[in-house]
Amino acid sequence: MKKILTFIFVLSSFYSMAQEKPGNEEFWETLKKHCGKAYAGELMTPSENDPFSGKALIMHVVDCGDDFIHIPFFVGDDKSRTWVLTKENGLIKLKHDHRHEDGSEDKVTQYGGITSNTGMAKIQFFPADQETTDLIPYAANNVWWITVDEESFTYNLRRIGSDRYFSVKFDLSKEVDSPGPAWGWE
Length: 186
Hints:
alpha+beta; eleven-stranded antiparallel sheet; signal
């Protein structure tokens, strides 16, 4: 009887482990819960020369599908930035869509990276991809990461081998009004 109970325990443990979702799927599901909602942010790396300092920072999880999430990031009246997350071959890709006020693409746009593994449920890392290296050679060592849980969302950038570090944190416990659509996404 003891052997049977041990076998059942091992089998049920194996079954429950097999049923767990990969970290990136849990991450995706947590983020999608915020679809349609906007949140205010705070610069976690303020400096005197930072063009984001002193400006209202708002993210709006505006559009969510099975394999994409669009998140405009508003800096004051500037609606030029949208974070575009897509699923690709079981991984998550982050791209930065930059537009001018007339909706046309900026010359520096569509840079970012793809996760190298499924990551964890609350954090995903995006090392710079080849497209980014070709477009912005000095950004070849960029690593972006996003964290998300029930209370907050952070967007972060570190340029390895330099002092470049940027972080903004959004409070997911309080919705705010969205400034409207990002430029080029009407």
